[in-house]
Write a structure and sequence with these properties.
Helix content: 55-70%
Radius of gyration: 33 Å
Structural class: mainly alpha
Number of strands: 7
Shape: globular
Number of helices: 12
Largest sheet: 3 strands, mixed
Distance between the termini: 81 Å
Strand order of the largest sheet: 1-4-5
Strand content: 5-15%
């Protein structure tokens, strides 16, 4: 098979910065996380949320997602780590590749739920905001497979074929050098899904988890046909790869979620994040300065009440008592005003 053009594979899966190795797979994952948090933060603020909230919740979601992705990979490809002649310690070498998106999303959602619950935020609203960022992170993460020369497709001589080094070729086709770049297919598909979700969210005002469900449904469609092209070892059920069955089940669940959510809770959330407790304490329930104004009014009322009694006292006691009463009234008014002033200062503090 002669190939006129092809995509070269990197000569090494890591770059050395002095004594420190920077692995391409890890770099792609890190870049993906930054893009997801950045875009998710912008979308969250646009929906009425506070800056920094997406990053705070990502502190929970990202570690959970990494653990979930690795667990799914190890469980579904256990023979790579626990078979004869294998070393189970390699299951922890996450930088060598091996993250299952299904496990990453599932356990990452659990971490996000914990973070959202701590801040009083509905998880579906958060999921809608970060959905395009997540799928763009997947687009970047797939380039980690390019660095590792893994998860490619069947042999091909197309101009965009991917050249694989002999050490990374399938045992069945050691003499064939070029294969379908399924990592590139999925990366481009993920970019398209991100654009679709952003457009649909603006056009139809998706809310209550429907933007996230649209991302899941659209991604699984692409994952199905891309998975069908891959030649790496995988478990088969009824003649089809396990990930194909997973894609079908997840697709149906996402479509059902969209239908049920649209019927029960149409439209988008009016508020996605409660006001911070600090802001409420400082401003009061009626806006800035409301609590101070209330205390001030009470103080003024106390001050006004003292002189109002002095005329009655002067009328019953005579002119000399009136003078004395007026003097006492002035003194009382002054002390009452001082007390009121202290009350105002105390509320401000």
């Amino acid at each position: 098979m002669e190939t006129l053009a092809f995509i070269p594979s990197p000569s090494a899966g890591e770059i050395h910065l002095g004594p420190l190795p920077l692995r391409g797979y890890a770099l792609c994952i890190i870049l993906g996380v930054f893009v997801a948090v950045w875009l998710g933060g912008r979308r969250w603020v646009a929906r009425g949320g506070q800056p920094g909230t997406v990053a705070d919740i990502a502190v929970w979601a990202v570690p959970f997602g990494l653990v979930g992705g690795r667990l799914y990979h190890v469980v579904t490809d256990y023979q790579l780590y626990f078979g004869e002649g294998r070393n189970w310690v390699d299951a922890f070498r996450i930088w060598d590749g091996g993250l299952g998106i299904w496990g990453a999303i599932a356990l990452g959602a659990l971490g996000a739920w914990i973070g959202c619950r701590r801040r009083g935020i509905p998880l579906p609203a958060y999921a809608d905001a970060v959905a395009p960022g997540i799928v763009l992170a997947q687009a970047l993460g797939r380039w980690g497979n390019w660095f590792n020369q893994e998860l490619y497709g069947r042999p091909t001589d197309l101009p965009w074929a991917l050249k694989i080094d002999p050490a990374h070729r399938p045992v069945d086709t050691p003499d064939l050098a070029t294969y379908h770049p399924t990592f590139l297919y999925e990366s481009l598909w993920c970019v398209g899904v991100a654009l679709l979700v952003i457009w649909a969210d603006r056009r139809f005002k998706l809310g209550h988890g429907r933007a996230f469900a649209l991302y899941v449904a659209a991604y699984t469609v692409g994952r199905f046909w891309i998975e069908y092209m891959r030649v790496d070892d995988a478990h088969h059920v009824l003649g089809m790869r396990l990930n194909n069955w997973t894609a079908i089940v997840v697709f149906l669940a996402a479509v059902a979620c969209i239908a049920v959510s649209a019927k029960k809770r149409p439209g988008r959330e009016e508020a996605v994040e409660p006001r911070s407790a600090t802001g409420q304490d400082a401003d009061g329930p009626d806006g800035p300065g409301s609590s101070t104004g209330s205390d001030s009014g009470t103080s003024d009322g106390s001050a006004a009440a003292a002189p109002s009694d002095s005329p009655d006292s002067s009328e019953s006691s005579g002119s000399s008592d009136s003078s004395s009463g007026s003097s006492d009234s002035s003194t009382g008014s002054g002390s009452s005003g001082s007390s009121g002033s202290k009350a105002v200062d105390g509320s401000t503090a």
